């Protein structure tokens, strides 16, 4: 299993919006960055990720699961854009802010800390454990 981070502006699509989708989840569509798309192409059903509120809050707030592997993005007529489907698994006991991540030595190499603009990114096993520890899990 691999770990990932998915960023969304909460005023566009929030953690609560994904939670409301229930077991059917939601297509993680609208990504128009080749690197982020390629990360989604590498995902497998069952992989876990962090749901991160960008712009407003700048914090990881929940855990998601990949429930469908890469497929054509329904919001694009261009077949080069693909996405995965996600469902909410659980809220983090405490949100983990970008500021906290930047202050945690174990996260100094995390993509989020060094390239906070990338909307879909990998998370190492050690980074996953550090984030969950900061969240009180």
Automatic annotation (TrEMBL):
Any single Pfam family the record assigns to this protein: EVE
**Which SUPFAM superfamilies does the record match to this protein?**
PUA domain-like
What Gene3D superfamilies has UniProt attached to this entry? ph1033 like domains (3.10.590.10)
Report domain EVE positions: 2-134
Q: Which InterPro entries match?
A: 5hmC_binding, EVE_domain, PUA-like_sf, THYN1-like_EVE
PANTHER family xrefs: THYMOCYTE NUCLEAR PROTEIN 1 (PTHR14087:SF7)
- The name this protein goes by in its record: EVE domain-containing protein
Origin species: Paracoccus fontiphilus
């Amino acid at each position: 299993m691999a770990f990932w981070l998915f960023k969304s502006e909460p005023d566009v699509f929030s953690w609560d919006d994904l939670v409301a989708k229930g077991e059917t989840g939601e297509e993680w569509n609208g990504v128009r960055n080749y690197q982020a798309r390629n990360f989604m192409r590498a995902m497998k059903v069952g992989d876990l990720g962090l749901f991160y509120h960008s712009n407003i809050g700048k914090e990881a707030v929940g855990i998601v699961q990949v429930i469908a592997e890469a497929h054509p993005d329904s919001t694009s007529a261009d077949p080069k854009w693909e996405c995965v489907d996600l469902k909410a698994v659980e809220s983090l006991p405490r949100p983990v802010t970008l500021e906290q991540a930047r202050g945690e030595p174990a996260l100094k190499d995390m993509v989020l800390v060094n390239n906070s603009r990338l909307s879909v990114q990998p998370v190492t096993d050690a980074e996953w454990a550090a984030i969950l520890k900061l969240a009180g899990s």
